[in-house]
Design goal:
Bound molecules: fe (ii) ion
Helix content of chain B: under 10%
Number of domains of chain B: 1
Structural class of chain A: mainly beta
CATH architecture of chain B: Sandwich
Oligomer: heterodimer
Number of strands of chain A: 13
Radius of gyration of chain B: 20 Å
Distance between the termini of chain A: 32 Å
Number of helices of chain B: 2
Largest sheet of chain A: 4 strands, mixed
Radius of gyration of chain A: 18 Å
Chain lengths: ~200, ~250
């Protein structure tokens, strides 16, 4: 016998189900009057520093069908590379940028859209720099545990080539699944749950 | 609000044998929505260690009272009145203060207020089905609601969900983000449910089952169910590692 470490187990995940909107985006659903607005719908305001961008895309299942009942959250650094969070120890982030966005996919098209700013670079634990990126968290009916991935920027080729996370991916031919397509200030990031182009998902 | 500096260490790895796997064919929708390639691991960086936090000014007066937050003045939701309470803890057993907890559920008849819902049970005009709160200094939270009814769902020919409340919990770091469901002690549907049974470990299912707590009922008003939620713990930095030359 040895001493008990006294640790608890993390509560097991269960799917968000098809009705995730009720709890996380009731106004989007049409249930008004409970919350003044849905959380996470605006990340920026007039005073936010940095380059304004739009991130859009769809989540596509193994049959090629876009998910129309998924919920996506994104989390990212501000234009200076700082996170707006009490656990950010490197300095104060732009107070006019939340860094966190949340939206359901469109009920008809499955398209999601975020209005945000391009994030700055952030450090890896060994102090190398990570290329600018946006963290994605995806929940939906049929997804038992939220999926984590990252969106990188196609116009950051040099930084992407040095990114410590991208570099540790064994099958480098999969790296393009993490890189958005750029058209003006709009970045399109389609997420494939399965298939030849299955997006890389992370265990963080 | 907090005098103690928040912990900023990396998180304990997730136990992916404790959580449900992605591919669980008895829950049919998972078949085409489950990634098939291995997840890529990397050590927590600042983007995983940090996360959004929400202030108490977010909360409306009735956000934690589903019996009244959608009801017309002078009316209330129909159903068994209950209080759900507990703590948001980390894996070290410490309460996590100041984190947002959101919840949603069907009404007492098992019907959701949702455009895609097809169950024939009636809507309750006084029940919206959503609520939220922020944990206190010791991680505690509570809300009042009606007990949701079980409902049938299209999976097998005759699959019914046990009564359950959906929970969305934020921690202090984005890697703690969790959505789960709370079940009710004594419900025979728990062990028959294909969604519950995506979890392989019986102990993990019991951990999601709230206990009836008669010591915390409000006599002549509402019964209480206790439901603690555990989020990933942070490694403590007993010794700081420094790269050579720094
Ligand atoms: Fe449900």
């Amino acid at each position: 016998m040895v001493q008990d470490l006294g640790l608890l187990k993390e509560s097991a995940s269960q799917t968000a189900g098809p009705y995730v909107h009720i709890g996380t985006a009731p106004n989007f659903l049409g249930t008004t009057g409970v919350y003044p607005e849905d959380l996470g719908i605006s990340m920026v305001n007039d005073k936010t520093r940095g380059e304004r961008i739009t991130i859009t895309g769809r989540i596509i299942d193994g049959t090629g069908t876009p998910l129309r009942d998924a919920l996506i959250e994104i989390w990212q650094a501000d234009s200076g590379g700082l996170y707006n969070s009490p656990t950010e120890t490197r300095g104060a982030a732009d107070p006019n940028f939340t860094g966190w966005g949340r939206t359901p996919c469109d009920f008809t098209t499955g398209v999601f859209t975020f209005e945000t700013v391009k994030p700055g670079a952030t450090p890896y634990p060994d102090r190398r720099m990570q290329a600018p990126h946006v963290t994605f968290w995806i929940v939906a009916r049929g997804i038992n545990l939220g999926l984590n991935t990252r969106m990188y920027f196609p116009d950051e080729e040099k930084a992407n080539a040095e990114d410590p996370v991208l570099k540790r991916i064994e099958h480098q031919n999969r790296v393009p699944t993490l890189i958005a397509k750029k058209d003006g200030s709009t970045y399109t990031f389609d997420i494939h749950l399965q298939g030849d182009n299955e997006t890389i998902f992370f265990d963080i | 609000m907090h005098n103690i500096k928040p912990e900023t260490g990396g998180f304990f790895p997730r136990d992916r044998n404790w959580h449900p796997k992605a591919y669980t064919p008895d829950y049919k929708t998972s078949v085409v929505r489950s990634p098939q390639k291995a997840l890529i691991s990397f050590p927590n960086t600042v983007g995983e260690i940090t996360g959004p936090m929400f202030g108490h000014d977010l909360l409306g007066e009735l956000d934690d009272d589903l019996i009244y937050n959608y009801a017309k003045p002078g009316e209330s939701a129909i159903g068994e009145r209950i209080i759900v309470y507990g703590k948001v803890l980390d894996e070290r057993g410490r309460g996590i203060p100041g984190v947002l907890v959101e919840f949603w559920q069907a009404n007492a008849a098992g019907r959701y207020r949702h455009r895609n819902e097809g169950y024939l049970a009636p809507l309750d005009p006084n029940f919206g089905g959503c609520g939220r709160t922020i944990s206190g200094e010791d991680g505690s939270y509570r809300f009042r609601t009606v007990k949701p009814g079980p409902y049938p769902w299209p999976n097998g020919v005759n699959d019914w969900r046990p009564s359950h409340i959906h929970f969305s919990i934020f921690g202090t770091g984005f890697a703690q983000r969790l959505i789960t469901q709370m079940y009710f002690e004594g419900d025979p549907l728990i062990w028959q449910c294909p969604i519950v049974r995506t979890i392989n470990d019986e102990a993990a299912i019991k951990q999601l089952t709230a206990a009836l707590d008669m010591a915390n009922t409000i006599p002549m008003d509402a019964r209480a169910y206790k439901f603690d939620i555990v989020l990933r713990g942070r490694r403590s930095t007993l010794f700081e590692n420094r790269m050579e030359g720094n």
